[in-house]
Design a protein that fits this description.
By secondary structure, this protein is of the alpha+beta class. It has 2 domains: 200 residues, Ribosomal Protein S5, domain 2, CATH 3.30.230; 167 residues, Alpha-Beta Plaits, CATH 3.30.70. The chain contains 11 helices and 12 strands.
């Protein structure tokens, strides 16, 4: 049974009626552009063939009801709830934030609803299950409310608004923009100062692999916010709105104005922004060797200058770059744990991946999760 069919059957079992709408959104990998998005820079991402599905219908008057394959008990809130939730119910903040953001954007909101979520996205691997949930929920809610369709860019902006203003994460538009604009066998290029969105083809014969370290720093939210604040401090000191408006040459002549930590963050962001454009140029002429070397350079910058890597991620990159067929590797996502992305050709096989996994297990006492990926299309409504 397909995931939508299984979700519909489970929805009927739990709520006693079929869903009105089902929407799907892919997870995403950050190909390159680490922490450049909220600094007004460029980033490349890709939708992947792992998804979040959301099914909705009208529910009991005056109630919002939720369940998921990870939280199977039905949770009920008064319709129109605006309070952020904590603990095991905190996942509700994503659909609640979307519902509230619909009103902020002047879009129709369902007065009540029953909602169910299914996902095959790995948890904690930095594949942005939260943004996928936001965009799938938005499409399902709009259908349920009888609202007209919205633009792909507005869909991305709506999801980001929910995460910034209700969930409380000061993310840029990377996650939601990549998931909204994803296209099979293409990378999504985002100029976050606009933002503007475009796609660039991936050469045939390449494959993305994710190695999930299965570690996550307990203070990740605080560390993400700290890096965000350090970047803002650096931009303010240097007299610019966004760090990415500066070039590496600009920073070389002005870095003495900055305290040590903001200077390191600025070096990473400004050079990473330049690397994104170098990758786009290399892809345009088919220089895949250059693309791979830029991915690995991105990781070393995250490791030494942005300081959002971990020993586990560094070890995976070190091992992967020694294996035939791997063109480059880097941490993907916010960092402080999570996953490494490897770009590989056909010489890198399942057996190659298991060699890396075994070395990791010998070093850290646990095996990483190995996930071969295809680049997939973006968020879409599956029922109409």
């Amino acid at each position: 049974m397909s995931p939508p069919a299984a979700l519909a059957a489970r929805f009927q079992e739990i709520y006693g009626h079929p869903p009105t709408a089902i929407a799907r959104a892919p997870g995403r990998v950050e190909f390159i552009g680490n922490h450049t998005d909220y600094n007004g820079g460029a980033v490349l991402g890709a939708g992947i063939d792992r998804h979040v599905w959301v099914a909705v219908s009208r529910g009991q008057p005056g109630q919002f009801r939720f369940c998921s394959d990870q939280h199977q008990e039905v949770l009920s809130l008064p319709a129109g709830s605006k309070n952020r939730l904590e603990g095991s119910s905190s996942w509700l903040n994503y659909p609640l934030g979307v519902w509230l953001s619909l009103g902020h954007f002047g879009l129709a909101q369902p007065a009540d609803f029953d909602l169910m979520v299914h996902s095959d996205l790995p948890v904690g691997a930095g594949m942005s299950s939260s943004a996928a949930l936001e965009l799938a929920t938005a499409l399902a809610f709009l259908k349920l409310a009888g609202a007209p369709s919205i633009s792909t860019q507005q869909l991305a902006e709506l999801g980001r608004h929910a995460e910034n203003n209700f969930v409380g994460v000061p993310c840029g538009v990377l996650d939601q923009g990549t998931i909204a604009f994803a296209r099979q066998n293409h990378l999504v290029q985002i100029d976050c100062s606009g933002p503007t969105f475009s796609t660039t083809p991936m050469p045939a014969g390449l494959r993305l692999w994710v190695f999930n370290s299965l570690t996550k720093h307990a203070l990740i939210d605080g560390m993400y916010s700290a890096r965000h604040a350090e970047c803002q401090e650096a931009a303010k000191t240097l007299g610019v709105k966004f760090l990415a408006t500066l070039t590496p040459a600009d920073l070389a002549t002005r870095s003495s104005q900055l305290a040590a930590a903001p200077a390191r963050r600025a070096k990473h962001v400004i050079e990473e922004h330049a690397r994104v454009h170098e990758v786009v140029a290399a892809l345009a002429v088919g220089n895949i060797t250059k693309v791979g070397s830029l991915l690995t350079a991105s990781h070393r910058s995250s490791q030494h200058w942005f300081e959002n890597s971990t020993p586990e991620l560094d070890f995976l990159v070190d091992q992967l770059t020694l294996v035939p067929g791997v063109l480059g590797a880097r941490l993907t996502g916010g960092g402080f744990g999570g996953a490494v992305l490897a770009l590989a050709n056909a010489d890198f096989t399942d057996a190659s991946a298991q060699i890396v996994a075994h070395a990791y297990a010998m070093k850290f006492g646990r095996s990483p999760q190995v996930i071969p990926l295809q680049i997939a299309d973006g968020a879409q409504l599956l029922t109409s």
